[in-house]
Design goal:
By secondary structure, this protein is an alpha/beta fold. 45% of the residues lie in helices and 10% in strands.
Length: 247
């Protein structure tokens, strides 16, 4: 099968960030595990129920990966039948909330990024540069509010004509993945239509968004043997490394 993405068929490529351009998905997953395990241990102690840890293999992909931060918190906790207020009431600022947990996870991520930095995937950057040389417009479409910070740390900001991150999506009141709103808005900012655009994602929510948005091609990036799951949720093709899409 010829996997080459040609300028004859497409005008733009829209890339997810974490796990597609940079290996930050692994950092995010570790931070979520740290957050939820700490919370679940205390919850188990407070309620007298068994502690069941957060699983990166079975909990992260369906409930958290690719989703806006607070939605990820709510989605995972709901899977455990735990429901928290979204934000603090003025009278109870010590109360644990969805926002407080999400912000705590963000602080864990900042700690690691500041201490260790990040390097982009070589194959992904080779593909971005190849597409731009063909005249493609390129965008990053990420649910992460840390998106620009990660792009700067990896020194790849200049490779993208549009950056649609969690902060901008919130300002524009766009629904997060698995809804297609952020991808469609990024394509609009690039001046292209979904019928001439490629979505490149590694998360279930991301490929679902690409399919719902009727994008011409949805590419899934495989992590941990999840090729079948990506295809079932909307990926037209799947690759282990984006260099596979180079001619």
């Amino acid at each position: 099968m010829n996997l080459t993405i040609s300028a004859a068929e497409y005008d733009a490529a829209l890339f997810d960030l974490d796990g597609v351009l940079t290996p930050t998905a692994e950092i995010h997953a570790a931070c979520w595990k740290r957050l939820f395990d700490n919370f679940l241990k205390q919850h188990a102690k407070d309620t007298g129920t068994p502690f069941q840890p957060f699983s990166i293999e079975s909990d992260y992909p369906p409930y958290v990966d690719g989703k806006p931060r607070y939605e990820g918190v709510e989605s995972f906790l709901a899977s455990r039948k735990i429901y928290l207020p979204h934000e603090h009431e003025k009278s109870s600022s010590e109360e644990i909330t969805v926002q407080a947990l999400g912000n705590r996870k963000d602080s864990y991520f900042d700690e690691i990024l500041s201490a260790e930095g990040i390097e982009a995937y070589a194959g992904a950057i080779a593909l971005v540069q190849h597409l731009r040389n063909q005249g493609f417009k390129t965008a990053v479409v990420s649910s992460s509010r840390n998106c620009k910070k990660v792009l700067e740390a990896a020194n790849i900001t200049s490779l993208f004509d549009c950056i649609m991150d969690g902060r901008l999506a919130e300002q524009l009141h766009l629904a997060g993945k698995p809804e297609p709103d952020t991808f469609l808005s990024a394509a609009e900012q690039l001046g292209v239509g979904a019928e001439r655009s490629v979505v490149i994602e590694d998360a279930i929510a991301g490929v679902q968004a690409g399919r719902k948005g009727n994008f011409k091609l949805v590419v899934g990036v495989i992590h941990g043997g999840n090729a079948a799951t990506l295809k079932e949720n909307g990926a037209d093709i799947v690759v282990n490394d984006l260099s596979e899409l180079l001619p």
